[in-house]
Design a protein that fits this description.
By secondary structure, the protein is mostly helical. It has helices spanning 2-13, 45-60, 84-100, 118-127, 132-136, 139-148, 154-168, 182-207, 254-263, 280-293, 297-304, 309-335, 338-366; strands spanning 32-37, 67-72, 109-112, 174-177, 217-220. The protein is 53% helix and 6% strand. A three-stranded parallel β-sheet has the order 1-2-3. The chain has a two-stranded parallel ribbon with strand order 4-5. Helix 3 (84-100) packs across helix 12 (309-335).
Length: 376
């Protein structure tokens, strides 16, 4: 029944430009949320606090009515050189982390991006509908391509179009993103608007709908979720950074976590303070401590303002260890039950496919393709 409800709701939502009917008269479906993390390397405390924990908080918020989909974006994992031997296992590990962190497959849809073929298909249609000039403005390509030199692939250049396809396939309303990704959401909105304008007339004749895609909005995740490198408080904690001491990996054992905090960069100031531009490492550790303990900025300042680094660093380390311990335990349990993990991902892909196929069918129809034989 739920699938039929979604279908009915989408049919009505997609004709939302008919002016004759007042807004309240139209049945609405719950707002749809979509997000995902790449499975390359090991997921870090930054991936967890900046994304996965926020998804879990959203899922468990009693006021939240959204229909949420969270995918492991494995198609994005090959935009830079990757290890084919490791990809499948890393994809399973990322999905296991989603579950271990508290995402509930009864409440949200968890799936692997490449298990829904519509992602790749729609990406091609949108690649042909996106002006090259728009891609040339993407800041992240400029930053990443400098690091890779000769190894830069066409995929790294055009991946924001795949990201747009990921979002638009599900008629997504809200995309939880960090502030560094807002440019990609703007691009997604532009691509949706341009496609709708270019093909809407044709679309209307075929499907009676006046648009193919809805324009999503960025849902900027709450302040304090941006975790920086332990060796440089001005750059983001990264799972691809060469030095492993720059990050806390979600599966690091307690002694490793303690050592990384012990060695992390500090300064010569006395006491702890937030948001002093000269003390990015101090702000970063206070942010991490606040996020893993659930204490407010004010509570953290009251507790830590007079501490020295020798007292404060072990305090943060212990708080991180205590927060990650149940997640690590649950992760080991899930990885020991491959059939459970497979069943969650199969059910998630089936639900995601159902929504994605409808959008893809409309996109093909709008562009004038010969319809596929029904048996497909």
């Amino acid at each position: 029944g739920a699938a039929a409800d979604v279908e009915a709701a989408e049919g009505t939502a997609a004709t939302a430009t008919a002016p004759a009917e007042p807004e309240a008269a139209r049945p609405t479906r719950p707002p749809r949320v979509l997000s995902g993390v790449q499975p390359t390397g090991t997921l870090t405390l930054g991936n967890y606090l900046g994304a996965i924990k926020q998804w879990v908080d959203l899922q468990n918020d009693p006021d939240n009515t959204s229909d949420s989909l969270f995918c492991v974006v494995d198609l994005h994992a090959i935009t830079a050189p990757h290890d084919p031997k490791a990809l499948a296992q890393q994809t399973r590990q990322a999905a296991a982390v989603y579950l271990a962190a508290g995402l509930d497959p009864e409440k949200v849809t968890i799936f692997v991006q490449s298990h829904v073929r519509a992602h790749s298909e729609l990406a091609w249609l949108l690649t042909c509908a996106t002006p090259m000039g728009w891609m040339n403005r993407m800041i992240q390509f400029k930053e990443k391509s400098q690091k890779l030199g000769e190894d830069v692939s066409l995929g790294l250049y055009s991946y924001p179009v795949l990201m747009a396809a990921d979002i638009l396939l599900y008629q997504t309303d809200l995309v939880p993103v960090g502030s560094d990704q807002t440019q990609h959401i703007e691009l997604t909105r532009d691509v949706a608007r341009r496609f709708n304008q270019q093909y809407a007339k044709k679309m209307k004749k075929i499907t009676k709908k006046s648009r193919v895609f809805r324009e999503p909005k960025a849902m900027i995740v709450k302040e304090g979720a941006r975790v920086m490198s332990l060796l440089d408080g001005t750059s983001k904690m990264s799972k691809s950074a060469e030095n492993d001491n720059s990050r806390i990996n979600l599966l690091d054992p307690p002694n490793v976590i303690r050592n990384k905090f012990k060695r992390c960069k500090t300064d010569s100031f006395v006491g702890m303070e937030w948001d002093n531009p000269e003390r990015p490492e101090c702000t970063n550790l206070l942010t991490i401590y606040s996020a893993v303990t659930g204490k407010s900025k004010e509570e953290v300042m009251e507790e830590c303002k007079d501490m020295n680094w020798g007292t404060f660093k072990p305090l943060v380390a212990d708080a991180v260890i205590a927060h990650l311990e149940p997640i690590q335990t649950r992760y080991e349990e899930i990885m020991a039950q491959p059939e459970y993990l497979d069943s969650v991902l199969a059910a998630g892909a089936a639900k995601a496919n159902e929504i994605a196929e409808r959008t893809l069918k409309d996109a093909y129809a709008a562009m004038g393709y010969l319809a596929r034989p029904e048996a497909e």
